[in-house]
Design brief:
- With 430 residues, the protein is α/β, with parallel strands linked by helices.
- The protein is built from 17 helices and 13 strands.
- The strands form three sheets. The chain has a seven-stranded mixed β-sheet with strand order 2-8-7-6-5-3-4, with helices on both faces. A four-stranded antiparallel β-sheet has the order 9-10-13-12, with helices on one face. A two-stranded parallel ribbon has the order 1-11.
- The two termini are 27 Å apart.
């Protein structure tokens, strides 16, 4: 199960609560649009309860499973998370006899320096969240360009998951270059009918399926932005695992952009945190805005140390995860074909990173129930994340392959698919 899946569940619940409040509801027991005193019917209550129970079962099945394709640390126990920082494992990351950090010095500065070096940038600033890092970066660029308009994709993270933070908090004006399930093209950037000061590119574009452009397409898009005298900012929350697809180093990829944001917990399994890398003058200003935004945290050594652990231990393994994700994806397709499923899709195929989507022609509730039953019965989790409806009789989920998934052979995947389809068939015929 992914951090994004957990967050999506919470966001859906929050949206539902807000909608009830806006319509005069009285919490979970009120029906949207109904009289405030009118309660949900037994059937409606049971639907809500079933969804809640299903989510709890999914999490429980995942945590008790013997085999999974990915086991991100954030779902571990406190004891397991603290083990990441035990003295024996942490000695190779940083000198533990140096003073602890205070307001961004010490180990935080060491992390910033290491990150800047990996990305080939002059400097980097550590931030508690990527949401803050990117707002600050683009706010600083707006001051330099004199244009607060940010061109981005309609599925970019700030548009989908940040409650309009760019406009509501930072005075920025986001405009959508395209809503197609791919990165913007050079022609779309060059011919866009509004001026903009910055172009923001999410690499990979998660909500479109963790998709990436080709290297040539990316360089042409950057050149098109330069022709318009716009700066280029990379939302690189998952940039770390993009090197295989581009067949380029992190430094070469980051060199295309004026500034880059990276996350320390999505792929690297840290406790949290992000970094903004770019010219020293930009980073210096960003640190001032970090303070103003409330990001000057008193002490951050646990998060910084976990980030260093991710750079040391997970970053070198990401190419291996990407390569094996392609094995898993191919085996999924073969398994569903052998099981006689009329249609399914891996997107993108082959995967561009170690994360991809699976689409199936079934009702989302049906396939979600089958996935949970499969995990409960076999103690093997093939689909750890929730399933979402994308149309009548059409559902999709996200699949992640990390260290735990390297133990799976293609035959293991096909066998798991066969058992999953058998349970899915039972659900369909009920």
């Amino acid at each position: 199960m992914s951090d994004t899946a957990e967050r999506s569940d919470r966001q859906r619940a929050e949206r539902s609560d807000r909608q009830r409040a806006e319509r005069g509801g009285q919490g979970a027991g009120a029906r949207a649009g109904a009289d405030p005193g009118e309660q949900l019917s037994d059937e409606q209550v049971s639907d809500d309860e079933r969804r809640k129970q299903r989510r709890e079962r999914r999490i429980a099945a995942y945590r008790s499973a013997r085999r999974v394709l990915a086991r991100p640390g954030f779902l571990g126990t406190l004891r397991e998370r603290l083990a990441l920082l035990d003295e024996a494992r942490a000695l190779d990351l940083h000198d533990l006899d140096t003073p602890s950090d205070l307001y961004g010095d010490g180990i935080v500065e060491a992390l910033e320096e290491k990150t800047a070096g990996l990305l080939g940038k002059e400097a980097a600033a550590f931030f508690p969240t990527g949401t803050m890092a990117q707002q600050v970066a683009l706010r600083c660029w707006a001051g330099r360009t004199g244009n607060p308009t940010v061109a981005l994709h309609a599925l970019a993270h700030p548009e989908m998951h940040e409650r309009n933070a760019f406009s509501q908090v930072s005075g920025l004006c986001p405009v959508r270059v395209t809503s197609e399930p791919r990165l913007p093209t050079a022609a779309e950037v060059r011919d866009f009918d509004e001026p903009f000061g910055a172009l923001m590119l999410e690499l990979p574009l998660r909500d479109a399926g963790f998709v990436l452009p080709t290297w040539q397409e990316l360089t042409e898009v950057v050149e098109a932005a330069r022709e318009r005298e716009a700066v280029v900012h990379f939302d690189g929350a998952r940039l770390w695992e993009s090197t295989v697809h581009f067949d380029r180093s992190l430094e070469e990829i980051a060199d295309l952009a004026d500034s880059v944001y990276v996350s320390f917990y999505k792929s690297l399994d840290g406790f949290g945190g992000a970094a903004l890398a770019g010219p020293k003058t930009l980073v210096d200003e960003a640190k001032a805005w970090r303070h103003r935004y409330g990001g000057m945290v008193f002490q951050q050594f646990p998060t910084a140390l976990s980030a260093l652990a991710g750079l040391e231990r997970e970053l070198p393994r990401l190419p291996e995860y990407v390569a094996h994700a392609r094995v898993v994806a191919a085996a999924l397709r073969e398994g569903f074909a052998t099981a006689g499923v009329p249609w399914m899709r891996i997107h993108p195929e082959p995967p561009h990173t170690n994360e991809f989507q699976v689409w199936l022609p079934y009702d989302a509730d049906v396939v979600a129930e089958a996935a949970i039953r499969h995990a409960e019965v076999t103690k093997t989790v093939l689909f750890a994340n929730g399933w979402e409806a994308k149309g009548p009789g059409l559902a999709f989920t996200e699949v992640y392959v990390r260290a735990a998934g390297l133990e799976w052979t293609a035959a293991d995947v096909r066998e798991a698919v066969a058992r999953f389809v058998a349970l899915l068939t039972e659900e369909v015929t009920r």
